[in-house]
Design brief:
Blueprint lengths: L2 H11 L3 H8 L1 H9 L19 H7 L8 H10 L4 H13 L3 H14 L4 H33 L9 E2 L4 E2 L4 H38 L4 H13 L3 H14 L6 H15 L6
Antiparallel strand pairs: 1-2
Helix pairs in contact: 1-12, 2-3, 3-8, 5-6, 6-7, 7-8, 8-9, 9-10, 10-11, 11-12
Length: about 270
Amino acid sequence: MNQSQSAKQQSIEDTMFFVRIRRHAKWVFVFLALTFAVTFVVFGVGANNAGTGIGDILSGSGSDGVPSISDALDRIEENPKDADARRDLATAYQADGRNSEAIAALDAYIVLRPKDQDALRELAGLHLTDANLRQQEAENAQIRAAYLSAGSTFVEPLKLGNDGATLGEDPITTAITTEANEAINAALESAQTSYTDAVQTYEQLVKVVPRDPNVQLELAQTAEAARDYPKAIAAYQQFLKLAPDDSSAAIVRAQIKQLQAALQPSPSG
């Protein structure tokens, strides 16, 4: 992609809902991701899903009646196919703030109960939470690098003698930048993996409830967050087929146009 194409796509993407939030209001995006699997506030749909997903994690953590990790593990050791024990283990890990273990436990549960809609939504929400945590790690690494290198960066290269030779790049800045870039790239790669996992989870949910327009909308928005625009467009279009008179239809149509524009090549010249 040439520079003019890149500039056009960046300009278009900057008007998109998820991209605009990620770039200009990071805390809002984190909040939306935490409520992603429960209700989509922008479109005003999916409210019937309240009580499942990340919202339950936040409201239920530390409350009485949370299953015990050790008890759930003992039950699983006794019977590896005990789906209820694996579900309890996932809940216990979430209450303990152990997101990765909760994801693994839910994955194992869904193998045994592949049509559990609540569990699928919850799993997607956990992947989205993980993606945003990794994005925050990348931002923190970038901020840290800027802070550490601020006092060691020369406005102009130091000159050596009168022959025009310079000292070259500041080695401190080089070391800090290299370390930061490695941390940023690793975090962003992990975030993208989590977004992809969330998309795949919603695709699995679509197979369970193919005629639920809210699920199509959740898939579309998750795919858009993952920057899988073709998949997002397809899911938005399916939402319109299932709910053409929905109050969100106009917003969805506008979003489809923006995504389609982002995929168009820049005219030559």
